[in-house]
């Protein structure tokens, strides 16, 4: 599995961010080809001190190629272009292959 993570810094208008994200952005995300599962939260906390991020999104893809194809697709282009409509604090996007743990 390959994971895409978006870390959102605090926006200028948190209420607008939450409303726009749920009402407009997530419906675009749901149309991403190859997206196996996704999750998000506005309740980001740090173990100590203040959390450096306001919100987080996680998307799961079969592999890096599936994620790259999704991001390059017309739907992926719309998702990327839409970020400016709500993420006034900016966003950090990371991705990585997931390694299963053994215990």
From TrEMBL:
Pfam family, one: EthD
MF terms (GO), sorted A to Z: oxidoreductase activity
EthD domain boundaries: 11-88
PANTHER family hit by this protein: BLR8190 PROTEIN
Family matches, as NCBIfam families: EthD family reductase
Entry protein name: EthD domain-containing protein
Source organism of this protein record: Frankia torreyi
């Amino acid at each position: 599995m390959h994971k895409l993570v978006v870390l959102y810094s605090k926006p200028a208008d948190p209420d607008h961010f939450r409303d726009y994200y749920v009402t407009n952005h997530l419906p675009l995300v749901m149309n991403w080809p190859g997206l196996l599962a996704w999750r998000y939260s506005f309740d980001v906390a740090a173990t100590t001190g203040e959390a450096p991020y306001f919100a987080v999104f996680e998307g799961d893809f079969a592999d890096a190629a599936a994620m790259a194809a999704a991001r390059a697709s017309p739907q992926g282009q719309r998702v990327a272009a839409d970020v400016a409509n709500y993420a006034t604090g900016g966003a950090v996007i990371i991705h990585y292959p997931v390694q299963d743990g053994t215990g």
